[in-house]
Structure formats: structure tokens, C-alpha cells
Amino acid sequence: MKDRLLLEAFLENGEVCVDALISNDFVKDIPVFGTIIKAYKAFDNFKDKLFLAKISRFIEELASVQPEVQEAIVEKMRNHPDEAKKVGEVVLFAIDKASDLEKPEIIAKIFLAYISNQINCSELRRMTEAVNLVFVDDLKTLINERGIASKSQHIYLKCLVSTGLTEVVAGKTVNEGGELYFEITEFGRKFLKAYQYGSTLVSHC
Fold this sequence. Notes:
By secondary structure, this protein is mostly helical. It has 12 helices and 2 strands, in the order H-H-H-H-H-H-H-H-H-H-H-E-E-H.
């Protein structure tokens, strides 16, 4: 009950931020997301407000990019309505399933990579699924890690195997006999590249 009250207080304080998003012309122009944000005042239960908080985190990331990137987002969504509908559904379902308020921010960066043609719609879907299959701290460790060895026994890499971002590999030398290691997969490397690309477009200054 205490945790619920704390989260409700956070959501109430977050309404000022949502009001700012509603007045943003860019947000109004994004199909699906703009409609949800504009309807937020009708959200009166805890589940809806939690969903709104996650949507807001996602859109705040998009709203922080440079004007030319915002224009590219709107143009791509408008010029490809069928794909925009499909992508919108993928992102909305992913955000709805997010178990942490940090996950929508990660999804937003992957989405920006899609908008910039760094990944396709299928890869976007697969990457958003991966985000929601894992404990967010393990994912953040992977994202922030530098110089990951080709073979590692870090526990967080083991926890990411179910997402397809990492895989199990057996030791191949005499000294490694019977040992199990973990490596980032090709998909995992593409995920990191997409995330890092999206991150370069986002500014919180």
C-alpha cells in the first residue's frame, strides 16, 4: 500500500510534465501517441495512470531530439501509414508491458534508430521484446559496459541469454574444459549499436 501511494504521488507530480507534452506541436503530430497524451485527463485509475507515466517517458525522449529529427519522425509516420500503424502497435504494446519506468526510455532510443533507418520494423519488434524480457539493471549494465571480452562469465550476461542478446559458449582450450562462458550475439551487437545511435540524437540539456 505504501509503495502504491508513493507511485501515485509520483504520477500526480508528473502531470505538469504531461501538460507540457500536450502543448508540444511535435507530440500532437505523432500518430497514436499524441492521441493518448491528449486524452490523459480521462485516465482516472491507477493502471491507466501508470501506462500514461510510461508513455510520457517514451515521448519525452522523442521530444528532446533536434527539430530536423522530429520532422523525420513525423514524415516517416505520415508517408508510410500502414507501417506506422504496425510500428505504433509494437511500441505501445512494448511500453504497456514495461515493468520499469526506465524501459520506455530505452525503447525510445531503439525507435529513433528505426526512424533513422538503422534497423527495420522486424528488428524493432524483436528489440522491444528483448527489453521486456529482462531485468532492467542487467540491460543497463550491458548498455554501459565498455570493452566486454569475447568470452565472459559475468552473471548479467547469463541473465540476458533468454533475450537473444547474449549466448552460451563452451570453453575450447584445455584450461577451459567444462567451463561455460557468455558472449554478445550478432543481434546483441546490433541492439547496442541501435541504442547508442538513438542516444546520440537525444538531448536532456
